[in-house]
Amino acid sequence: MRRGISVAAVVGVLALTATACGGGGDSGNDGSKAAEDPGSVSGTITWWDTSDATNEAPAFKKLVKDFEAKYPKIKVDYVNVPFDQAQQKFKTAASTGKGAPDVLRSDVGWTPGFAQLGYLKDLTGTPALDKSEDFLEGPLKNAAYQGKTYGVPQVTDTLGLLYNKELFQKAGLDKAPATWQEVKDAALKIKEKTGADGIGLSPDSYYSLPFLYGENSDMVDAAKKKITISSAASLKGVETAVDLVKSGAAPKPAGTDGYNALKTDFKNGKLGMLIDGPWATKEIFGGDAYKSRENLGIAPIPAGSTGTAGAPVGGHNLVLYAGSKNFDASYLFARFMTESAQQESVSNAVGVLPTRKSAYSQTVLADPVRSAFHDALAKAHPRVPIPQGGDLFTEWLQHYTKILTLKEDPKAGVDATAKAWQSALLKDYGVEE
Amino acid sequence: MATVVTRVRRSFSTHWYAWAMVLPVVIVLAVLVGYPLGRGVYLSFTDANEANVGRTIGVNRIPATYQFVGLDNYWKVLSGQEGHFYSRLTWTVLWTASCVLLHYALGLGLALLLNRKVRFRALYRVLLILPWAVPAFVATFSWRLMFNEKYGVLNALLTQVGMDPVDWLGDATLQKVSAVAVNVWLGVPFMMVAILGGLQSIPAELHEAAEMDGASPWQRFRHVTLPGLRPVSGTVILLGVIWTFNMFQVIYLLIGQGASSESEILVTYSYRLAFQGVRDYAGSATYGILILSLLLVFAVFYRRLLTRQEAATR
C-alpha cells in the first residue's frame, strides 16, 4: 500500500513538473513554436539597439528589414538607445515591467548583473543559441552567468595598440613595441624626434585592465572571493601606467572628456600611439593623418613585466527580457541577427568583429584592421563573470582618473577603491594585499 | 472638542463651494506629492534595494525579501558610519551660500543699473535675461565645452596671454569654482528681474523726499532702497536657497559622473545611490528625506526671522 502511495506521489509530482515546464501554456509563449515551425510565428517585438546612431545603426537597421522580409508575420520595432543611458533605462523599465524591450543589445559587462536581478531569460538550449559551438570562446563565456547562457554574442572587441606609422618612421622606429618598457622608449623617441606626443592613455577605468592583466592580476578574483585591485601585482600595473605619464612618454590626460581629446589628437597626427578598440577605427580613418588607411598600424596590447599581455574581451550580447510576451519571435530575431552571414555583412559594413568562428571569412580577414584585432582576440582576457562586474568600473573610474592625472597617489587610490568595493558591492569578499 | 466639530460643520455648510473647488487640487496633490512622499518615508525605514524588492518578470518570480529596519538608515547616515553625509553636506551648504550670495549681489547690482534711465534700456534687459531663457542643460553643456582643458575657449584665451592652461573640470577645487560660476551665470537673471520689479514698486517720492532732506546716495540706498526691497528679497533668497540646494543639472552635467565624487552635492549623491549599481532605494530615500527636513527647518527659521525683522521695522 505504501508503495502505491509513493508511486502515486511520484506520478503526481511528475505531472506537476510537466505542466510547470509548459510555462502555463496560456498563450503558447514557451518558445516551442520558434523551434518547430518558425514560419508560423507572428507578432511584434521591440529591439533596443545601443550601437552608435550615425556610424553603426544603419547596418543594423538593414538587418532588421531583412529579418522582416524573411519572417513577414513578425514586425520589429527598432529603437536606438544611446549606449551610456541604456543600462539604467533598461533597469528602470525591467524592474517596473513597463516599457521594457523584448530584445536588448547588452554590453557584456551588464549581462551577469541583469541575469542576477532576474531580468533576463535563460537562453540555454533555446533556438536563440543556434550552433553555439561555433561562437568564439571568450564572447560565449561573457554571455554566461552561473552555468546558464543569458545572451547571444553579437559583436566582440578587444583593445589593441594603434600607432601612426608615419610618426614611427620619422622617429626611426621599425616595429611596434611589445612591452610597456618598449612603449615608453618608443614614445620618448617620438616626442624627441617629431614633437608629437608619445602614447595616449585614456583615464577611463576600462583602459586600466591591460596594465592589470600584464602583471597577471585583475580587479577581483571571483574564485577566491578576493578583491585584487590593491594587490602588489595590480599596483605594479597601475604604476606602470603612471610612470608613462610621469616620464613624459604619455601626455597627462584631461580629467573630463580625456578619452575624446586623445582620440582627436591621434586622428590629427599629434599623438604617436593610442590604446583603443576596433570601434574607434571608423572615426580615426576620418582624421587627417589617416587619409591613407595604410598609415594606421595595429599591434596587440603590450606585455607587462611578467611577459604576459592581456586585453579585455568586450562586446555586446543580444539578451531577451524575461517578461517578454513573445519569446518565439524574440528567439528567431536573436538567432537571425547573430547568424554567420549577418555578422559578416555588419562586419564588412562597419568594421566590428564577429563572434562566430565561421564569420571570419576571407573578406572579413582581408581587412587589416579586423585581421589585426582578430589576432589580438586570441590572447584576450575574459572579464570577471560576477553581477557587480559592470559596477566595479564606476568607483574605480574616479580613482583611476585621479591617479593618471597625478592627483592621487596610486597606492592610496587602489586602497580606497578596494575599500569602497568591499563596503558597497562585494561585502563577502576579502581584500588581497 | 464639540466646538471644533461644530465649527468645521458650520464652515463646511457655509463654504461648501470653496471645499468643492479645492477638492481636485487636493486630490492631485495627494496623488502627485503625497503618495511618493509617503512611499519615500516608508522606504527609508527599510533596507530595500533593487535586488530584494519583490517582482514578477515573465517566468521569473522573485519574492520580496527586504525588511523593516526602523531608524537604522538614519542612524548610519547621521552617525557618520555611511561616511559621505557630512562632507557632502558641508560642500552643499558652501555651494548654496556662495551661489545665493553672488546671485543676489550681482542681481541687485544689475537691477540698480537697469532701473536708471539709460538708452537702449529695453535691449539690455532682454540681453541680460537671455541666460535664463536658455535651458539649463544646454547652457551647462556649452560651459563644459568652454572649460575643456585642451580645446576649450577659456584655456585658449589663457594661452593667448601667455599663461598655462588650467584643468578646470579635473581638479577638485577648480571643479567647485567652475560649478559655482556656471550656476551664477544661470541664476543671476532671475534675481535681476525679481529685484528690478521690487525697485520699481518703491515710490519715487520716497527717494525725492530723502534727497530733499539731504541724504547721500549711500544713505538713500541704505535707508530707502533696501527696506523697500525687503519683501521681494526675502522671497527670492528663500527660493534661491531651495533651488540651489537642489540644483541637480549643473553639478551632474558639468562635472559628469566621473571624477566628481568630491563635488557632489546631497541631491546628486542621492541620485547616484538610486541609479548606480544595484539600486539602493532605501539609502536614496533616506537622503531624500534628510534633504527635505533640512530645507524645511531652514524655511521655518528663515520665515520666522523675516517676520521678526518686519515687526521690528514697523
From TrEMBL, chain A:
Ordered alphabetically, the record's keywords are: Signal, Transport
Instruction: Name the domain of life.
Output: Bacteria
| PROSITE patterns, per database record | PROKAR_LIPOPROTEIN
GO terms under biological process:
maltodextrin transmembrane transport; maltose transport
Keyword Electron transport belongs to the record: no
Any single Pfam family the record assigns to this protein:
SBP_bac_1
Which Gene3D superfamilies does this chain map to?
Periplasmic binding protein-like II
GO cellular component term of the entry, any: ATP-binding cassette (ABC) transporter complex, substrate-binding subunit-containing
Signal sequence segment: 1-20
- The answer to whether the entry has keyword Heme is no
One Gene Ontology MF term: maltose binding
Q: What family name appears in the similarity comment?
A: Belongs to the bacterial solute-binding protein 1 family.
PANTHER family named among the record's database cross-references: MALTOSE-BINDING PERIPLASMIC PROTEIN (PTHR30061), MALTOSE_MALTODEXTRIN-BINDING PERIPLASMIC PROTEIN (PTHR30061:SF50)
Query: Per its record, how is this protein called by name?
Result: Sugar ABC transporter substrate-binding protein
- Look up and give the organism this protein is from: Streptomyces cinnamoneus
Automatic annotation (TrEMBL), chain B:
How does the protein's chain sit in the membrane according to the entry? Multi-pass membrane protein
From its record, what is one biological process in GO terms?
transmembrane transport
Keywords recorded for this protein, A-Z? Cell membrane, Membrane, Transmembrane, Transmembrane helix, Transport
Task: State the SUPFAM superfamilies in the record.
Answer: MalF N-terminal region-like, MetI-like
Record field: transmembrane? 16-37, 93-114, 126-146, 177-199, 236-255, 281-302
Residue ranges of domain ABC transmembrane type-1 in the record: 89-302
Q: Name one GO cellular component term.
A: plasma membrane
Record localization: Cell membrane
Give coiled-coil spans as residue ranges: none
Q: Which PANTHER family match?
A: ARABINOOLIGOSACCHARIDES TRANSPORT SYSTEM PERMEASE PROTEIN ARAP, BLL4140 PROTEIN
State the family named in the UniProt similarity comment for this chain: Belongs to the binding-protein-dependent transport system permease family.
Q: What is this protein called?
A: ABC transporter permease
Q: What is the lineage of its organism?
A: Bacteria, Bacillati, Actinomycetota, Actinomycetes, Kitasatosporales
